[in-house]
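discrete fold record:
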Amino acid sequence: MKNNFTFVLLLSIILMGCVSTKSTIKNIDNNAPIPILIKENTFVITEYSKDKKYGYDKDYPINVFYRNASNETINQERFLNALAGPNGEKLNYKKLESCCPFPTKNNTVGAAFLDLYEITWQGQEKPILLYFNIYEKGALLVPVGLTFKK
């Protein structure tokens, strides 16, 4: 128990030293509706993003807010399960890393990381990378270059 406390305390100090006091994330919307969940562990997403930065830029991550950290990837998976490639291709995805620390009031240590995912599909020339934020809310939109899963 003491080792866990020491680790959390040390991590908090490190994070606070690496994180500016002002977030650079531009698309946080605390009034965004809670997404509807359908079977197959999938969100209902009804709109396309017009912003080419949405998801592709660390300052415009896909904000899939998830309060319970016991499964930190569930909302990313729910989001990605709703999408397809540009011609309806089945997506494959994997989490590459956590990166890009930022300040947040939605984490007990006052700071958090974005998650970076690699997205691929059959016939694709180059994988795409999408940034996800599980600590903040925002409108869930289909990123430019992807489509709804049918």
Summary: The first strand starts at residue 37 and ends at 38. Residues 2-18 form the longest helix (17 residues).
